[in-house]
Design a protein that fits this description.
The protein is an alpha+beta fold. The protein has one domain: Phosphatase 2c, domain 1. It is built from seven helices and eleven strands. The strands form two sheets. Strands 2, 3, 4, 5, 6 and 9 form a six-stranded antiparallel β-sheet that branches. The chain has a five-stranded antiparallel β-sheet with strand order 1-11-10-7-8. The chain starts with a strand and ends in a 13-residue tail after the last strand.
């Protein structure tokens, strides 16, 4: 498997409240965990929420692997992340009002499982082109789902940052989950809205097709920066392959 990732604060935000993780499950080295999260809640709260969500989800999944159905374990991991962020948000020493998106994936062989809350996205790139796996839990996401606006209109919509669901805002939130088949040569992309409000899905596809693997995340994040970079920008690009490429796996 090859992967690359990038996370930048952008040009406007003084703090990067996004978090991300790419990691093998130690007990199952053929199983990969990927996640991105976009925190909210102020200078410290958002960063803490996004990091807590990913760490909680990963630890739950790693602990339960081998003791149940993988997609169910991943979905419950996102639920556990919500509980953790919510509990910290209402605690005495927490950050009131904090929350985060979370899009997490498991990849094993030809199986891809995704669970998410919020508007951070999961894409699948295959010979048929690029397809958004996840559905945005946002005002513009609902408009796009109903065919009321196009992707380009959504990128410029004045309500594009208004979420309908986020982790940590309620004691329990609905989690959306998806199962996909992947083949060698396919690419999975997880990213926050700091990228997708400035870079279209067709541009993501073009970059993956035309750029060397080790340059894709840099190119796409810099493209968002060149267009204003008004939010934190985070993306993971994961190429499905039977081999390894240590030169591409350059981010810890």
């Amino acid at each position: 498997m090859y992967w690359d990732a990038k996370s930048l604060p952008g040009l406007v935000r003084s703090k990067n409240e996004d978090s991300w993780l790419v990691k093998r499950i130690r007990e199952r080295p053929e199983l990969w965990f990927l996640a991105v999260a976009d925190g909210m809640g102020g200078f410290e709260g958002g960063e803490f929420a996004s990091r807590l969500a990913i760490e909680t989800c990963y630890q739950y999944v790693a602990r339960l692997v081998g003791h149940g159905d993988l997609p169910e374990i991943l979905e419950n991991g996102v639920r556990k992340a919500n509980e953790a962020v919510y509990r910290e948000g209402i605690g005495l020493f927490g950050y009131p009002g904090m929350g985060t998106t979370l899009t997490a994936a498991l990849i094993q062989g030809n199986d891809l499982y995704v669970s998410h809350v919020g508007d951070s996205r999961a894409y699948l790139i295959s010979s048929g082109g690029i397809r958004q796996i996840s559905e945005d839990h946002s005002v513009v996401g609902e408009l796009m789902k109903n065919g009321a606006i196009s992707e380009d209109e959504a990128m410029h919509h004045p309500q594009r940052h208004i979420l309908t669901l986020a982790l940590g805002t309620e004691a329990d939130v609905p989690v959306s989950s998806y199962r996909e088949k992947v083949e060698e040569g396919d690419t999975v992309v997880l990213c926050t809205d700091g990228l997708t409000t400035l870079v279209s899905s067709s541009e993501i596809l073009d970059a993956i097709k035309s750029k060397p693997k080790g340059e894709v995340s840099n190119f796409l994040s810099n493209l968002a920066i060149s267009r204003g970079g008004y939010d934190n920008i985070t993306l993971i690009v994961f190429w499905v392959s039977a081999g390894e490429d240590p030169e591409v796996n350059s981010h810890a």
